[in-house]
Amino acid sequence: MKPYFLLYNVVNVLGWSYVLIGTVQSLLTGKGGLWEDVGLVLTYTQSLAAMEILHAAFGLVRSPLFSTFVQVMSRLLIVWFYTVPAEACHTHWSLYVMVLSWCCIEVVRYSFYALQVYYDGKAQYIPFALFWLRYNLYMVLYPTGITGELLQMYVGLPHILSGSPFGFRLALMHFAIYLPFSPFVMKNMGRMGKRASKKRAAAINPPPPRPVVGVIWPETDQRTGRPKTTGTNRGIWEASFAAVDAALAAKVANERNWRFGYRKHVQNNVRLACESKANALKIARAGLAKAMSEFKYKHPDAAEAVPLQEAMDTFTEDKFDTYVVEGELPKKVKTLKVPYEGKSGAPYYNYKPNTLLEGDMLKKQLKKWAEYGTIEMSAAKAISDVVDNQDTWLDLSDKYFVLIGATSAMGPLEMLLEHGANIIAVDIDRKNTWETLITKARNSCGKMFIPVRQGELENLKGAEKSDEWYKNLAAVSGSNLLAATPEIRNWLVRIVPGEDLIIGNYTYLDGALHVQLSVAANAIIDSVCKTRGKASARGKRKKSTSIAFLCTPTDCHVIEKEAHDAMSENLVAAPLWQKLLSALYCGKGMVRNALKPIESRDKPGKHLHIVDGTVVAQGPNYSLAKRMQHWMAIVKRDEGHTVSTNIAPSTATISVVHAWTFAAAYGGMHHLKPMEVMYQETSNAVMGALLVHDVCNPDSFSNPLNKLNNPMELFKHGSFHGGIWRTGYALDSTSTVNVLAYLFGNYWFYISAGMGVFSSMMVWLVSGEVYGKDPTSGLVEMLMGGRQ
Questions:
Q1: What is the DSSP annotation of 604-640?
Q2: SS3 content of the chain, % helix, strand, coil (to 5)
Q3: Which of 309, 396, 563, 753 allows an S-S link to 419, with CB 3.0 to 4.6 Å?
């Protein structure tokens, strides 16, 4: 499209330059006749801007469609509705004001765009003078242009009034809308200028590049310095398929639109794994092996990056000392308390998690959730088991939890500390992060084992365990998961010798970094498991390593048959408005959630059921990061390790609902039975309870001694999915409906009033043609000095 856009902008520069020269000549000679000189070129050059609406509509440019439509249509209406047909407009001095303002703005704008296209969007190559004019001329020329436009509209009114009442009413509506939108256009231009200036400044004086160290993607874009993720992402999926089905692997390799086409391959991968235990394990091992060989590790002291697996085998030096922060609260809490104050089928934002549910009240709420479909019965039973055994299970003073990503909003840190657990914290080496972690540990009855840069403990200033000393400790604590992956493994291998470890990955970052974190955490988990061992038989206590993951419901999972059947039932029972929307979408919007079961080859006649809650907008990197955690979970369980991996509900964390679109989507979910959004406090408590159940209850399916027909069934037990497994419509097809339901549910008065006003204006506009003479014509005659 580059040649087209270059030509389009050059043609506009030439057209507006011609009009500008003609206008200046007309002013200098004083002979008048501006319209005769430039009117035709002005009309068609301005009309060419209609293409910009199409550019925005088809996504060829990033311009927002609504503001582009308003700006372009406003000018086209002025030209074709007022200036062209009204001869009075041709000779009025406002034509000069309007045309000069337009020309100066457009010559600069299209010149800027032409150079931007030529330089492939690199604003730093555009001359500063042109850049400055592009984003500053509007402060003078927008007000003058708007003034000229309004005067042209006023001068053209007699011509409009000589026609039909429809024309007059359209003009009146145009006047009414014009002024309110003018400040919006200027503010929007100001925001664009600030963003462009920051981007240009960063391009001219980029910050010094971060040293390339730690876990890195195999390929990097030489122009931007960012990782090229698509090839590696697709390659890992392809390798996992190739271990079982060459034809499906070829389909992955040939997928051209991986960014939006990856979802069907994720579903195919799960389906293939469900066919047999052998398939599931071959797929998982092949995918993990490919990731470990593809991702590289660059040691700070090494000249070249090496495959991550080689780095884990090579770098065995110690980098961290350990300091233990003792909790200052003496009493261990042995009661499970879940903060919750809500109601099934009601919006979460109408409630706050102010009520602490415990004992029979908590069990009663668990039953309500399970009966409504917000959670699975196995999750309700697991948490109820914790309540029944809380005197023994909730004394966690003999448990050692490694939390990779200890400060994660969805992690179990606070719940575990409350019950006296020993936390081995892994998180980024930032002072404020560790000040937060140390404070939480001190304000608990648990302990926290902290990685401290080697040799720094003896240099700390202040009295030990004073506030000042702890602040100085925070400054030298922490471990960058990506930069020090082998060193973190080395620290975990030798810490608390003789004790069992429960090592959980709770990390999350956007985009490519999420995959890097997942790969690094998997490398550590795999190595620690091999080094520290596993329990050999039920009831025998020996040094062992268990694993924990927190699964997302927005993924493809194996589910219970009851959940699959509930999808169909809820689809049939959906309210009429949802069925109408589904029909109007013609199958491209709201689609049924229930998928075709997969027959097991290991046990013919037995079927596995799946749900695909994938949200395509989250992207293929998010999906790969979570899938690699699934692969690690089933491989390690097959090797004999206890694996706790439960599905968490959609949670209104601060980082999620900060964006109004996500807040609105979450706010409308309750309309799709049995979905319910939880607050962070509720999710932390219930997911922590499920973790305790999995590591304390020998009958849990997390225990590898309890056999599964297929490794993929590990994820169907104990799911607190928030209703996504049982709702009638697939989650990815309901986001727009959720947003609209939220807006209409909360702002129905304003929306109804606006629609009423708009409808009344439309009726008023059209009725002029039906009933003849406009009833407001007397007022207009007075305003126009009696002219009609």
A1: TT-EEEEEE---GGG-HHHHHHHHHHHHHHHHHHHTT
A2: 60, 10, 30
A3: 396
- Cβ-in-10-Å burial (0-12, 13-18, 19+) of 463 comes to exposed
Residue 296: CB atoms within 10 A of its CB come to 19
Q: Which pLDDT does position 188 carry in this prediction?
A: 77
- H helix or E strand, kind and range, residue 215: strand 214-216
* 357 token code pair: 């549910």
pLDDT of amino acid 398? 93
**Burial class for 419, CB neighbours closer than 10 Å (0-12, 13-18, 19+):** buried
599 - beta bridge partners? 607
> Would you call 18 a catalytic residue per the annotation?
no
- Reported as type and span, the H/E element at residue 188 is helix 165-204
Burial of 341 (0-12, 13-18, 19+ CB in 10 A): middle
Cis peptide before 412 (omega within 30 of 0): no
**What pLDDT sits at residue 760?**
65
C-alpha to C-alpha distance for 751 and 744, rounded to whole angstroms = 7
Residue 610 and residue 100: Cα distance in Å, rounded? 64
What pLDDT shows up at residue 770? 43
149, 275, 418, 676: which one is catalytic? Answer: 149
Radius of gyration of the chain (CA): 33
CA–chain centroid gap for 617, Å, is 7
Query: What is the predicted pLDDT for the residue at 543?
Result: 63
C-beta separation of 503 from 464 below 8 A = no
Q: Which of 81, 113, 83 is nearest to 99 (CA)?
A: 83
Yes or no: say if 217 and 297 are a contact pair by the CB < 8 Å rule: no
Give the residues across from 449 on adjacent strands: 324, 424
What pLDDT is recorded for position 624?
97
- The rounded distance, in Å, linking the Cα atoms of 106 and 20 is 10
Kind of pairing between the strands at 296-298 and 306-307: antiparallel
Residue 609 CB neighbours (<10 A):
22
Can you give the pLDDT at residue 536? Answer: 47
Tell me if residue 297 is catalytic: no
pLDDT at 613: 92
Cα distances (angstroms) measured from residue 476 to each of 57, 271, 438, 652: 52, 47, 12, 33
Q: Which two tokens stand for residue 101?
A: 């303002």
Secondary structure element (H or E) that encloses residue 400, with its range: strand 400-404
Please say whether the beta carbons of 16 and 41 come within 8 A: no
Which residue stretches of the chain have pLDDT < 70? 163-169, 176, 179-180, 207-211, 223-224, 534-543, 585-589, 751, 754-788
Q: Which amino acid is at 748?
A: W
* Active-site position among 142, 178, 351, 585: 142
Look at residue 404 and give its three-state secondary structure.
Answer: strand
Helices (H), 406-458: 413-418, 431-442
Phi-psi bin for 511: left (phi > 0), alpha (psi -120 to 50), beta? left
C-alpha 723/C-alpha 727 separation (Å) is: 6
State the pLDDT at residue 210: 64
